[in-house]
Amino acid sequence: MNTKQVEELTGITRQNIRYYERQNLLEPARDTGNAYRDYSEEDIRRLKLIKMLRMLDMPLKEIGQVINGNLPLKEAIEKQQENLLHQQKQLQAAVEVCVNIRKEKSETFDVDTYLERMERMAKGGSVFARIVDDYKQVADEERRRQFSFYTEQPVHTAGMFKKALQDYAKEQHRKFQMVKEGMYPEFLLDGVPYTAARTFGKDGGIESPHTRIICSRADDEKGKREVQGRRRIVFQSIYSIGVNIKRHRFKSILNVAISMLTVVMLVFYLGSLSSTRQQFEELPEAIPVRAIVMNAIGTLRNGLLVRQQVLDVVYASPYIGEIEETAELIGHIPAADVWRTGEGSKEDALSGEESGESVRLEEGGKEAVLLEEGAEEFQIVGVNRPEITEDYTEEIHWADGWGWGRFLEGEPVCIAGNTFLEQHDLGIGDKAAFTLEHYQSLPLGPGLERSSLKPEKLEIVGVMGITEDSAAQAPQMIVPVNRVKQIYKENGKVYFASSLAFTVTDPMNLNTLKQDLVKAGLSSVVPELTDTYIGSALRMEDDVFIQAAIGLEKNISLLEAFLPFILLVLLLAGYLVPHLLLQGRRGEYAIMRALGTSKKRCTVLFFTEHMLLAMAGGAVGACLAAVFGTAGIRAAVMVWGLFLLCHTLGAAVAMWMFGKMSVAAVLSHRD
């Protein structure tokens, strides 16, 4: 068939046919008489195939590989499909830019902005695309670089090896040529040089009674030039690891599952330890420890005489907080309301020169009341915290600008009960003047006696409602405890608190606190002692706290005792898991070594594959622990890191032991 006829049959011009011949894509026969080209049916089919592939925009280089049998047609089509999809994305991006430019309202637009955007897109896309293309090229070369098959009969001699290779080539309809015989034969398959090796037993978890032959060829020098350096090595390693994980999928899943369960158990253990420690640290808030100063036999907690030495130690201690201190005084109200106004001065009245009567004196528009001595008594209590009054007050109505914060500063002010104010015709803003007494111990004996204080004048800044249940024991007037201390000072008296209680903020130092309080004169309650009003005993409500603290300390000690054992188990697991999983891959390792892969690279590949699976399983376990609340994200990440550290050390030892095997013994099935 001549050239004109070929043009008519294929639709390809004479010039293109000549060009394909120069590219070694076509080699028609020559007529012996006139040397004219004589195209065969095979040439026509080849030209049509070339035309079809060119219409798919496939490069001539790849078409040549397909025509020469170096690249299967389906693989070439798959690769070209990916290229066309990539071009489609680039074209779509260009279309979007065109659409955006058309949407511009003005004929002039910012060229620099569009150019910068397009260059950024092109640069980013090209870098990523180049990386992807390079990996695909390396992966494709690796797929074609090595293949394996099983023989029907065992292979024990060089002759049997050669026959097995010949039978395989015949079955695959490929051209075979032996180059070097032996147990590691070298041969050509379709003109491509290969080296073969054999192994026995399992492959990928499949038991095989026959011999597995693995054929490998050297790297494509042309591909090496296109993808050079470390990138090629990395891509080869990634591909090899991916293939091995897929081939040994059961072992891979087992590795991931073991790692996941190990991390979950480790998170649970460390979470329990952390939770127990946190409970121990929060124990003072969960079970507050209170202490109450009482008399020696433990029958009184109010109406005591608590020395200043004890107060100084309590207020200075760093282990104490929320101190509740009260001081009791006695006020006097006249037995009958006999009022006199307009005569004498306030100073005379307060000094007692106007005796036998009560006097109401005008002062700045408000009233001051002098209550005569020997009249009705009422209770005054000085407090240092508002919580003290909660037992007997319902609600406090304050004067404008007043509250507990200002009240406790110690100004000459008071809060009076609503009943008391109604009885004596007083209200918020009035100033009440009265005489005072306080309790002090008898010179001889355990009792108390009263001692007079100077008259006092206090402004009423609050009215308290007293509950019915506590009306009998509730005071009629509340003053700041600092004001009571000031009254004692002005009268030259030694101050004694009437009650003292506090919360221990640092119960872990209870023993130190108790020693300090003993030095201040406080001791334990002893019922056999003589009853007195002196606040000399301390009742510490710490039994529940101590029992809980002892229990938590035991739990912490027990969990911490297991920590070295847990770490040892992690290290052993890191060694045993890869050791057991790799035993079935000894033949694979030996084949890689026999085909020229260095020991270092084999070790790195196997180790990396195992650690990637362990990392993935550990990460899943850490995520599960964080999602289900066993531990926080930070704690889960720390546990994952601890697992990887121990697992890496154990796996490194396992790989070192694995690399000491005899390659020859494994390949000869003696190991």
Key traits:
671 residues, alpha+beta, Multidrug-efflux Transporter Regulator, Chain: A, Domain 2, 4 domains, six-stranded mixed beta barrel, five-stranded antiparallel sheet, 50% helix
Describe the overall structure.
- This protein has 671 residues and is an alpha+beta fold.
- The chain has four domains: 3-78, Orthogonal Bundle (Multidrug-efflux Transporter Regulator, Chain: A, Domain 2), CATH 1.10.1660.10; 110-237, no CATH class; 248-287 and 544-671, no CATH class; 296-535, no CATH class.
- The protein is 50% helix and 20% strand.
- It contains 21 helices and 19 strands.
- The chain has a six-stranded mixed barrel with strand order 9-12-17-14-16-15.
- Strand 5 and strand 6 (192-203) form a beta hairpin.
- The model is unreliable at 203-207 and 335-374 (pLDDT under 50).
Summarize this entry quickly.
With 671 residues, the chain is α+β, with helices and mostly antiparallel strands.
Helix/strand class: alpha+beta
Percent of residues in beta strands: 15-25%
Work out the oligomeric state of the chains in this entry: single chain
Q: What is the rounded distance between the termini?
A: 64 Å
Low-confidence runs (pLDDT<50, min 5 residues)? 203-207, 335-374
Cα shape: elongated
Mean pLDDT: 82
User: What is the CA-based Rg, rounded?
Assistant: 50 Å
* Count of individual helical segments: 21
Strand order within the widest sheet?
Answer: 9-12-17-14-16-15
Number of strands: 19
Total tally of structural domains? 4
Which percent range fits the helix content?
Answer: 40-55%
For the biggest sheet, the summary is: 6 strands, mixed, barrel
